[in-house]
Amino acid sequence: MPPGGTQESRADSRAYRGRLAPSPTGGMHLGVARTSLIAWLCARAASGRLVLRIEDIDTPRVVPGSAEQIMDELRFLGLDWDEGPDLGGPFAPYVQSQRGEHYATAIETLRTRGLVYPCTCSRKEIALIGSAPHGELGPRYPGTCRNGPSHPGRPEALRFRMSETPACFVDRVHGPQPARVGDDFVLRRADGVYAYQLAVVVDDIAMKISEVVRGDDLLTSTPRQLELYRGLSAPPPAFAHVPLALGADGRRLSKRFGSRSVSELRAAGASAERIVSYLAHSLDLVLEGQLCSARDLAAEFDVTRLPRSPVPLDDAAIPS
Ligand code: GLU
Fold this sequence. Notes:
CATH architecture of the largest domain: 3-Layer(aba) Sandwich
Helix content: 25-40%
Strand order of the largest sheet: 3-4-7
Structural class: alpha/beta
Number of strands: 11
Low-confidence stretches: 1-13, 130-135
Mean pLDDT: 89
CATH topology of the largest domain: Rossmann fold
Radius of gyration: 21 Å
Number of domains: 2
Number of helices: 10
Bound molecules: glutamic acid
Distance between the termini: 52 Å
């Protein structure tokens, strides 16, 4: 073993790779800022590397200029990254709209393994089928096209054939998760747009992400993604799903419900320290009013000790 440090800790610091994966649908509100802070702290506490990836495949929701705005907001908060669209690196491009060939290759791999089939059902038809309950992931798909397209000649989406033996996993915040048999989900829509589930898994594999830290609204997506890891013969990363932020009205914090972005708070005179301290207090990391920077929090940070329930955030509480 080399002198001056254990082999294990060296190996750990080489191995940890996290990511920030914002969707450029507007500036960062406090909820996204808090999830980004947690992902950043996980990577820095492990002396790991952090990748920034812009998730812009859902084109109708993309707001021009917001990727740059989010990058600016992250920098303002002191949340830096080691690889990303502005830095390049071995896995560039880091912008999903430029990574279509990777998603196409993955679909080919899955197809040769018998895990993909064309589907010609319309959304309306799926929504109308039987009295199937609508789960958190939208209307359930009963597998109508599993044995061949139900409406030959219509444009085809591509679906993933889920197994009967779903994987279970232990979330680092929420603990053991039950195995859920899911329905076959879309990999590529009939209009050719690749689905989030596929893109995120292909990218996390390509970018060698060792831990995914994201909001717990995506906890129910993880079983599907685990199936894709299995289908692509790739080991899955660890997962930490962090509590969502609620607005002052008790609803999920969202750009649509008028919560202010980090840029707006900054323009109103709030310092980065005030914003970071407010977020850190909501996570029980510091006392109320105790000022800190992101870097101050890194050494002691432990994602497994985060609160599990949604935490209210009120941007009006941040002094300007
Ligand atoms: N781009 C997604 C979002 O902004 C995050 C997806 C993920 O972390 O898997 O909500």
